[in-house]
Amino acid sequence: MSRIAVAGAGAFGTALAVALSATREVVLWGRDAPALERMARERGNPRLPNVILPDLLTITGDPDEAFARAGTVLLAVPAQALRGLLAEQGALLAGKPLVACGKGIDLETLHGPSAAIRQAIPSARPLVLTGPSFAADIARGLPTALTLACADPAEGERLQALLATPVLRLYRTTDLVGAELGGALKNVVAIACGACIGGGFGESARAALLTRGFAEMQRLALALGALPETLMGLSGLGDLVLTATSDGSRNYRHGLHLGRGEALEERVTVEGAATARAAARLGRRLGLDLPVTEAVAALVEGRSDVATVLRRLLDRPLRAE
């Protein structure tokens, strides 16, 4: 079956559904019935202004309608909500390719999305779709390149052909761990970079944080079995450059607000906040030195402020790069 279901009617899930529905049958599923009814009636999502939802895109809150006939399901839900969705809809998702699109590390299990899929639904085939991308760009049809990770090369090649569009270019890898960790950990560094600018420490300090943060991403990912070349690709460095330098990034904006001492945005999912806490715990468990990650964890937990954590980073012992 070539029908694609997208689970999660937020900005990113809707954007993927819009992009894919141009050439194939797509159904978008979500939980908020009134919001879904409004989207279906008005053919738009308030989180994607000026984007018209194609008439051929089906919008539903009925999981049977969404998943029963789908050959492939994209899981565009926040990382901290993924296990709940898998447990709830496991019977309908069993045996299918499940493409995780959220970027984070589960705060309770300290696992990425592919492990969550394998544990919850052993018969499912996990994939990861990640890389530098803003929902608005995808929905507007702007050129975007992403990484699609799948342990089975043949399955990965088939899904690459299924999910690619003329403006959505997919690069394939078998390194699930590296792809999902690159997408998760760059959000932590993005918060740090936003806090640096918000706190008035300047562009040069942000460049240093981005670079040293990327070194930490590599350190942790390699310790968990990732391939170094994956972190140097779209799912690592590419996504980091976008997320840590643009006001369009929710994680970067979160850092800006923290640095300025401003109220945080309400009803906005900031994956990097939970991931910082999870990554810090992983680093301690593995005996790794992750000072930027620890600093962001302290910030998001309210244990410190921007001036203090940045001063601690600058006061660390001098060493070779």
From TrEMBL:
<feature type="binding site">
    <location>
        <position position="268"/>
    </location>
    <ligand>
        <name>NADPH</name>
    </ligand>
</feature>
<feature type="binding site">
    <location>
        <position position="271"/>
    </location>
    <ligand>
        <name>NADPH</name>
    </ligand>
</feature>
<comment type="pathway">
    <text>Membrane lipid metabolism; glycerophospholipid metabolism.</text>
</comment>
<dbReference type="InterPro" id="IPR011128">
    <property type="entry name" value="G3P_DH_NAD-dep_N"/>
</dbReference>
<dbReference type="GO" id="GO:0047952">
    <property type="term" value="F:glycerol-3-phosphate dehydrogenase [NAD(P)+] activity"/>
</dbReference>
<feature type="binding site">
    <location>
        <position position="186"/>
    </location>
    <ligand>
        <name>sn-glycerol 3-phosphate</name>
    </ligand>
</feature>
<keyword id="KW-0547">Nucleotide-binding</keyword>
<feature type="domain" description="Glycerol-3-phosphate dehydrogenase NAD-dependent C-terminal">
    <location>
        <begin position="175"/>
        <end position="310"/>
    </location>
</feature>
<feature type="domain" description="Glycerol-3-phosphate dehydrogenase NAD-dependent N-terminal">
    <location>
        <begin position="4"/>
        <end position="153"/>
    </location>
</feature>
<keyword id="KW-0520">NAD</keyword>
<dbReference type="InterPro" id="IPR013328">
    <property type="entry name" value="6PGD_dom2"/>
</dbReference>
<keyword id="KW-0521">NADP</keyword>
<comment type="similarity">
    <text>Belongs to the NAD-dependent glycerol-3-phosphate dehydrogenase family.</text>
</comment>
<feature type="binding site">
    <location>
        <position position="251"/>
    </location>
    <ligand>
        <name>sn-glycerol 3-phosphate</name>
    </ligand>
</feature>
<feature type="binding site">
    <location>
        <position position="103"/>
    </location>
    <ligand>
        <name>sn-glycerol 3-phosphate</name>
    </ligand>
</feature>
<feature type="binding site">
    <location>
        <position position="131"/>
    </location>
    <ligand>
        <name>sn-glycerol 3-phosphate</name>
    </ligand>
</feature>
<feature type="binding site">
    <location>
        <position position="103"/>
    </location>
    <ligand>
        <name>NADPH</name>
    </ligand>
</feature>
<feature type="binding site">
    <location>
        <position position="133"/>
    </location>
    <ligand>
        <name>sn-glycerol 3-phosphate</name>
    </ligand>
</feature>
<dbReference type="Pfam" id="PF07479">
    <property type="entry name" value="NAD_Gly3P_dh_C"/>
</dbReference>
<feature type="binding site">
    <location>
        <position position="250"/>
    </location>
    <ligand>
        <name>sn-glycerol 3-phosphate</name>
    </ligand>
</feature>
<keyword id="KW-0443">Lipid metabolism</keyword>
<protein>
    <recommendedName>
        <fullName>Glycerol-3-phosphate dehydrogenase [NAD(P)+]</fullName>
        <ecNumber>1.1.1.94</ecNumber>
    </recommendedName>
</protein>
<feature type="binding site">
    <location>
        <position position="249"/>
    </location>
    <ligand>
        <name>sn-glycerol 3-phosphate</name>
    </ligand>
</feature>
<dbReference type="InterPro" id="IPR006168">
    <property type="entry name" value="G3P_DH_NAD-dep"/>
</dbReference>
<keyword id="KW-0963">Cytoplasm</keyword>
<feature type="binding site">
    <location>
        <position position="12"/>
    </location>
    <ligand>
        <name>NADPH</name>
    </ligand>
</feature>
<comment type="function">
    <text>Catalyzes the reduction of the glycolytic intermediate dihydroxyacetone phosphate (DHAP) to sn-glycerol 3-phosphate (G3P), the key precursor for phospholipid synthesis.</text>
</comment>
<feature type="binding site">
    <location>
        <position position="135"/>
    </location>
    <ligand>
        <name>NADPH</name>
    </ligand>
</feature>
<dbReference type="InterPro" id="IPR036291">
    <property type="entry name" value="NAD(P)-bd_dom_sf"/>
</dbReference>
<feature type="binding site">
    <location>
        <position position="31"/>
    </location>
    <ligand>
        <name>NADPH</name>
    </ligand>
</feature>
<feature type="binding site">
    <location>
        <position position="250"/>
    </location>
    <ligand>
        <name>NADPH</name>
    </ligand>
</feature>
<keyword id="KW-0444">Lipid biosynthesis</keyword>
<keyword id="KW-1208">Phospholipid metabolism</keyword>
<dbReference type="Pfam" id="PF01210">
    <property type="entry name" value="NAD_Gly3P_dh_N"/>
</dbReference>
<keyword id="KW-0560">Oxidoreductase</keyword>
<feature type="active site" description="Proton acceptor">
    <location>
        <position position="186"/>
    </location>
</feature>
<keyword id="KW-0594">Phospholipid biosynthesis</keyword>
<dbReference type="InterPro" id="IPR008927">
    <property type="entry name" value="6-PGluconate_DH-like_C_sf"/>
</dbReference>
<feature type="binding site">
    <location>
        <position position="239"/>
    </location>
    <ligand>
        <name>sn-glycerol 3-phosphate</name>
    </ligand>
</feature>
<dbReference type="InterPro" id="IPR006109">
    <property type="entry name" value="G3P_DH_NAD-dep_C"/>
</dbReference>
